[in-house]
Amino acid sequence: MEKKLGRPRSEKTKNAILTAAYELLLENGFGAVTIEKISEKAGVSKATIYKWWPNKAAVVMDAFFDAAAERLPIPDTGSTIKDMTIQVNNLSKFLVSREGKVINEIIAEGQYDQKLAETYRTMYFNPRRLDSRRILERGISRGELKGNLDIELIIDLIFGPVFYRLLITGDVVDETFIKKLINYAFEGIK
């Protein structure tokens, strides 16, 4: 006889927890969110949360990135330069929104919490890089870009200035900046 490992995860309960975590994150910021507050707002026990997530960071990140993924579709216009411009523009608009500013808080917290840093890299940044990789690979296959590109380096070249402005200088990241950035980057890789 096979031993059952507990009740299956309820989608309704999962959604209640993720919604509660996301709302608390937007209302109070990452530092003020606690498992107790999530539990209270979702109407579930702390044990239920800990059964599915190992810690606060994991549930909050899951909630945040679940919401963020819906707002960042992968464009496919038939033009690599247009697709990258749209992707960088969408990401930049998201990052300067109230929701996106949470990323700054999470990155800051990740400087002191390696598990959190690993979580945001795995759950958020790696999928965004994969999206960019797909766009650039399509460009190579269509002959728009050189076939021997170091795609990971190109992604860093494009997104590095965006995060530098958002996290370090505070300079504007608008459509004009993004268009110039993409055009300069693509001049070297076509």
UniProtKB/TrEMBL annotation:
Domain HTH tetR-type: 11-71
Keyword DNA-binding: yes
Keywords assigned: DNA-binding, Transcription, Transcription regulation
Gene Ontology molecular function, alphabetical: DNA-binding transcription factor activity; transcription cis-regulatory region binding
SUPFAM superfamilies cross-referenced by the UniProt entry: Homeodomain-like, Tetracyclin repressor-like, C-terminal domain
PROSITE patterns: HTH_TETR_2
Entries under InterPro entries matching the protein: Homeodomain-like_sf, HTH-type_TetR-like_transc_reg, HTH_TetR, Tet_transcr_reg_TetR-rel_C_sf, TetR_C
Pfam families found in the cross-reference section: TetR_C_11, TetR_N
Gene3D superfamilies named in the record: Homeodomain-like (1.10.10.60), Tetracycline Repressor, domain 2 (1.10.357.10)
DNA-binding region: 34-53
Domain of life: Bacteria
Protein name per the record: Transcriptional regulator, TetR family
Native species: Clostridium saccharoperbutylacetonicum N1-4(HMT)
